[in-house]
Amino acid sequence: MKGTRVSLRYAKAILDLAKDQNSADVVNGDMQTIFKTIIGSEDLQDALSSPVIKGGIKKNVLKEIFSDAHAITLGSFDILIENNRIAILKAVAQKYTFLYNEMNHVQLATVTTAIPLDEALEEKILLKVKELTGSGATIENLVDPSIIGGFILRIGDLQYNASVAKNLSNLKREFKNNTYISKI
């Protein structure tokens, strides 16, 4: 990822300032919104990384899109533009959320399913993750129809694969290794 070290430094500085002003939670919400918005808009990504568009225009666009953001978040736009680093805003937002979760001992649980999760199932997964790890988690749902059904849960280095595709693969392997069936 481009600008990883630099984005981490900016994210740390923003988090330190937010902690000093007791607004780390609010700024984290802003950063999550910023990350999702930039990921969802290719035009915004292009505008932020374009050398042709002036910094003042970029700042006005960001302040218009994120008009309800906290003052610290809005100030971070100014600093990034001033230092010609606004193109890494997405990475800064992602790193901020990572550092915030690390500070609060919250892990990221990635759940891959064949269809999107509903809220009731998300709550059950959060409870199971808390039971397994002893700490809270945020859920990122990835949709992959190739797993057919079930789910794949990944928390840090741990992975639990309860997908239908995995079960079918195991069943196929057992049939191949079964000498009684192969003689029929």
What does this entry show, briefly?
Strands 2-1-3-4 form a 4-stranded mixed sheet. It has helices at 4-20, 24-40, 42-49, 55-65, 71-82, 89-103, 119-133, 164-177, 179-182, and strands at residues 107-113, 137-143, 150-155, 158-163.
In words, what does this structure look like?
It is a peripheral membrane protein. Belongs to the ATPase delta chain family. One of its GO terms (molecular function) is proton-transporting ATP synthase activity, rotational mechanism. InterPro entries: ATP_synth_OSCP/delta_N_sf (IPR026015), ATPase_OSCP/dsu (IPR000711). This protein has 184 residues and is of the alpha+beta class. Helices cover 61% and strands 14% of the residues. It contains nine helices and four strands, in the order ααααααβαβββαα. It has helices spanning 4-20, 24-40, 42-49, 55-65, 71-82, 89-103, 119-133, 164-177, 179-182; strands spanning 107-113, 137-143, 150-155, 158-163. A four-stranded mixed sheet has the order 2-1-3-4. The termini are far apart. The model has no long low-confidence stretch (mean pLDDT 90).
Question: Which labels suit this protein?
Answer:
single chain; 184 residues; alpha+beta; Peroxidase, domain 1; 2 domains; 9 helices; elongated
For the largest beta-sheet, the strand count, sense and barrel status come to: 4 strands, mixed
**CATH-defined topology of the largest domain:** Peroxidase, domain 1
Nearest-integer average pLDDT: 90
Kindly report the spatial arrangement of strands forming the biggest sheet.
2-1-3-4
Which radius of gyration do the C-alpha atoms yield? 22 Å
The CATH homologous superfamily of the largest domain is called N-terminal domain of the delta subunit of the F1F0-ATP synthase
Task: Give the beta-strand count.
Answer: 4
InterPro entries: ATP_synth_OSCP/delta_N_sf, ATPase_OSCP/dsu
Keywords: ATP synthesis, Cell membrane, CF(1), Hydrogen ion transport, Ion transport, Membrane, Transport
Protein name: ATP synthase subunit delta
Subcellular location: Cell membrane; Membrane
